Amino acid sequence: VVTLDCRSMRRLICLLALSLAAVPGRLLSQAATPAGTWSGSWDSPNGSVYSAVAQFTVSEDGSLDGTIQWSLQDTRRADLKPKVGQSGIEYIHGTFDARCRVATFAGYKLDDPQQILGMDHYQLILAPNGHGFGGVTGNDQGKGDTWTGMISLRR
Questions:
Q1: pLDDT digit string (tens) for 122-142?
Q2: What is the dihedral of CA 28, 69, 148, 81, to 10 degrees?
Q3: Cα 34 to the chain's mean position, in Å?
Q4: Are 72 and 47 in contact (CB under 8 A)?
Q5: Contact 129, 113 (CB under 8 A)
Q6: Which of 75, 89, 128, 152 could form a disulfide with 111 if both were Cys (CB 3.0 to 4.6 A apart)?
């Protein structure tokens, strides 16, 4: 049997309290995040279909940055049909709200020598297990955001 004096007991209680206070931070750091590499597809009602390989980073303040490498897989658009199979890169910046697992971001630059891409706005939700990431995209094309593009990504 171990007996503790009052001073030792207070130290033990303080140590336990500090240990417990650190638990939420550890749990938060294990929360699902969009950081990392994803692959999937995007499609729109006009018949365009792109495959995607995305790389995202998320800062402690919730800033989200990354790239999406797009490859045109199919289209009904006459101007894009000869470009099926071509690729380009969209650079994105935005935010990720870890509490509701929602990312809001937009393209700000393209590396697109074949002119197959447009810069979209994105609103995506991260699955609770962190293995799925998807949502809607909008490209104003001078008409206001349509929000009819759909993107689906998996790890």
A1: 999 999 999 999 999 998 665
A2: -170
A3: 4
A4: no
A5: no
A6: 89
Q: Which amino acid is at 135?
A: G
Mean pLDDT of 96-103: 96
Q: What is the pLDDT of residue 55?
A: 98
Q: What is the pLDDT confidence band of residue 46, given thresholds at 50, 70 and 90?
A: confident
pLDDT > 70? residue 21: no
Q: Cβ distance 121 to 137 under 8 Å?
A: yes
State the Cα–Cα distance between residues 34 and 36, nearest whole angstrom: 6
Cα angle, residue 101 at apex, residues 130 and 49 outer, rounded to 5°: 70
CA gap 48, 70 in Å, rounded: 12
Beta strands in the chain (DSSP E): 36-43, 49-58, 63-74, 87-97, 102-111, 121-126, 132-138, 149-154
Please state, in angstroms and rounded to a whole number, the distance separating the CA atoms of residues 146 and 140.
6
Residue whose tokens read 């995305």? 54
Q: State the pLDDT confidence band at 60, using cuts at 50, 70 and 90.
A: very high
